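[Q] Does anyone have a clean structure-token version of this?
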Amino acid sequence: MDDDRDVESFLPLPASVMHIVVALADGEKHGYAIMRDVSELSGGAVKMGSGTLYGSIKRMLDQGLIEETDERPDPGLDDQRRRYYRLTPLGHRVGAAEQQRLVALVGAARSRQLGLAFGGG
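[A] Here you go.
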């Protein structure tokens, strides 16, 4: 399905949603794998609880940013109760737009020497 909704209407993304988008950017994952990925990608700084994760997943499904997949790994290696998610084309576009927004914000903070004002780097 090609979704031509304006990606700007989704921005700014809540931090939890952007973390999920980043975790799913390299392929589909089940919920627990998303939580592990978020923790790993943030160097342990972000520990997403199941309530936050599944509340965000529900909203993202409703918005068309992600979809549940029917494809599963080898059934002998997988728990049948797991649900797998992947980004939709709209989710990819929204994630890319949020990345650009955040890069611009970080650039503005650097140009104003935000970190240097208090001895940061």
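[Q] Thanks! Anything notable?
[A] The chain is about 50% helix and 10% strand.
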